[in-house]
Amino acid sequence: MNDLATGMLVQHVSLGIGRVVAVEPTAVHVFFPESEKRYAAKLRWPAARPLLKTGGGEGNAWLESLSSFSLDPETGRYALAANWITHDQAIADFLSAHPQAFADPKTPGTGRGDRASMWRAASAEWARAFGDGEGERLLAAGNVREMVRRALRIERHVTLASAPFEAGALRNALRHPDAARAFFEALLALLSVPSPGRARFERLFAATEQLELEPELAWPLATLFPFVAEPTRHVFLWPRSACPAAERLGCDLRFEATPNWATYASLRQLSARLLEKLRESGARDFMHVEAFLHATSARSTPGSKARHMSATRSSRATTLRNGSRIASPAAGLDPPRRPGGARRPPVV
Q1: Alpha helices by DSSP H, 236-316
Q2: Which of 79, 100, 117 is the last residue before a domain boundary?
Q3: Domain span at residue 21?
Q4: For the chain, what is the domain count?
Q5: 70 and 192 share a domain?
Q6: pTM
Q7: Which of these, 31, 52, 103, 288, is most buried using a 10 Å CB contact count?
Q8: pLDDT tens across 291-316, in order?
Q9: Angle formed by the axes of helices 215-229 and 177-191, to 10°?
Q10: Using CA atoms, how far apart are residues 79 and 87, in angstroms rounded to an integer?
């Protein structure tokens, strides 16, 4: 009857570009962002087909990354999240709450000021600790203990900006020398090239899993150091704010509690689009975008955060260094002890 399929981009003669949300025997549901409404339009067959054009048009990254729509049984229409707003609306809300936008209100690099200022303090600490080849020198010398100590100096600034990093969290994650070394090797390998590809990120994500973190710390730790080292290229993913903010902006992060390339790439694509829109308000890099997403998430409905917290708590089992798996802490099971109950010696 028709050549339309869910997920396809189409051009309507009067409503503009849209995304096919669902195809039924008697109707096609298409979301048109120009309408600034969260509901997809329900167009009846066969009258709708002559009005829709497929192929030949330019792609729309935002439309292509829209989150899954749910069917409203009362209206028979598909809709985005109840708290969905357009990017422009989110920016207007942010500027209303933060008239100075992205102007650092206090001394840059001290961590005294807004959220982005706290991130910049962590970035300055990274430069002092690992910049100018210092990280590579320490790694080549096998001085993992010193690398951990310097990383802990960065953590002191991060605890001000990001709730998951409570005092002592990073020390505990990097307590085993072999796992810490593998983590730093993967991290520096990623930062050693101008445009790291998927393989380098996946190596870092795998090294992060070997640190035997609590599930809610996996994403923050996997993305923290690239973010503070090069905020013009790398993003930070804290699920408790990034996921509700993305949902509110209509973006599907394809979130999985275990760090993975698909989720990271989705957040980076969203952040890149937002950065372009926020530049006229003074945004310079992804630190400003992260502050914007954090503020957007704070205005989300409580249910959004609860859903993503639940997803984090019910994450897939954590992989141990010896290849076995343990249940997530949410499952109520204690992880098995190592043979003989022995623990590896701590780094610090």
Answers
A1: 239-248, 261-278, 286-298, 302-313
A2: 79
A3: 9-79
A4: 2
A5: no
A6: 0.76
A7: 288
A8: 999 999 876 544 444 444 444 444 43
A9: 40
A10: 17
